[in-house]
Amino acid sequence: AHDTGLALGNLSLQATTMGLHTHMMAGFHVEKARDILSLSPDVEPLTMLAVGYYGEPSALPQDWQKAAETAPRSRQGF
Length: 78
Hints:
By secondary structure, this protein is an alpha+beta fold. It contains three helices and two strands, in the order αβαβα.
């Protein structure tokens, strides 16, 4: 698990330098991933990561998605 975290960090940094964006997923269905990816029983999926370019918000199907994507970003202070 430690090596996976380190690898994801490095992959994310490399993607950013190449103009790509990453999105790590908090939860996924392990068995569904195993089936879709045809993983052998000795392979244990630990995490999922999407890598790609941002699209145009206008291409999103729902108005609420467009609004959420174009809203100003803010972080809660501590």
